[in-house]
Amino acid sequence: MAENIKMTEGVATGILGKKLGMTQIFKDDVRLPVTVIQAGPCVVLQVKTTESDGYNAVQLGFDECKPKRRTRPMLGHFAKAGVSPRRLVREFRSETAPSLAPGDFVGVSVLQGTKLVDVQGTSKGKGYAGVVKRYHFGGEAASHGNSKHHRHAGSCGRCYSIHKGIPKNRRMAGRMGGEKVTVRGLAVVEIDAERNLLLVKGPVPGPNGGHLVIRRSLKDPSRRTPEGKRLY
Questions:
Q1: Using 50, 70 and 90 to split pLDDT, how confident is the model at 155?
Q2: pTM above 0.85?
Q3: 2.40.30.10, 2.40.240.50, 3.30.200.20, 1.20.272.10: which CATH number matches 14-124+179-223?
């Protein structure tokens, strides 16, 4: 499908992106560790309003992919908007009705004036891990009599209770990482609207090349009224 990329402002409270890596920049002779994020361009797939859906929201798509990697219902959803398939699809709510239309493109400029952002991503998978690595257990004593039991979790059952077996939420060995993680209140250091680059202070979840969802932070003044009430 032919796509005429023309950036629009509209009403969007966040954007989708991809983690490019970490670097450092200097501002006022202070070294700042920053994460470079390719934030956009994102295509508008659907616009929701209070009249049609009961709330205001914009659905964005990011990162083109082959049609065979999406389901048939999603391919129909993309065709209805007149765009090619996208890997990442997310919805952003807003307080007012969006002035966007399906097929429009939005860039990182939608975050102009934002001081803090919340970044959500999938953390790096660590595989199967024990309790010492996964939960920072101290392990057992390394003295005489302890044979190959130094990094074990110890007893975890309830043999002498009316409730038998291992209790729920017991910290044990298992799969570590690969979970949805949100880092809140990251400071926006720089916005490059021409190249759709967003620089935030500090690290964000996931590996380089991992998809991210960037929203205006709950702590950002633009998301609250003068009385401190959250807008959206």
A1: confident
A2: no
A3: 2.40.30.10
